Amino acid sequence: MTTPDFAAVLREASLRVTKPRLAVLTAVHEHPHADTDTVIGHVRADLGAVSHQAVYDVLRALTDAGIVRRIQPAGATARYESRVGDNHHHLVCRSCGAIADVDCAVGHTPCLTASDDHGFVVDEAEVVYWGTCPDCAATSSTLSTTSH
Ligand SMILES: [Zn+2]
Ligand SMILES: [Zn+2]
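That is the input. Now the predicted structure with zinc ion docked in place:
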């Protein structure tokens, strides 16, 4: 995976290039689906002391500009990712909260064609597939076999 030129990405979105913005964008890019605390941890490792509020503000600015996508499965904390604009979906594990990307059908986005759009102009469909990740499935099957 090549690292995009984040300074150019910010400029294209008409955002001033600042160190916190670059650090947050890098953290989100390198740790897809990270929650806010994880992003803050990586930004601090990179820049030193940065306030929670500063990171929240940067995440909001990047999300508003469409550079970062915010996902929030029901009952989970908000996660951030730099993979935007492709209408991909997410698999979420009910047990451990693991999140994986799922591509929409290749080349087109059938889920954007609602059976009845009620006159809305649809530009995004958010699909969350809930289930059990392989790790958790393996753990629970081990547990159930040993308990017998
Ligand atoms: Zn799991
Ligand atoms: Zn994703």
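The pocket of zinc ion (ligand 2) is lined by residues 32-33, 81, 83, 88, 90, 101 (CB under 6 Å).
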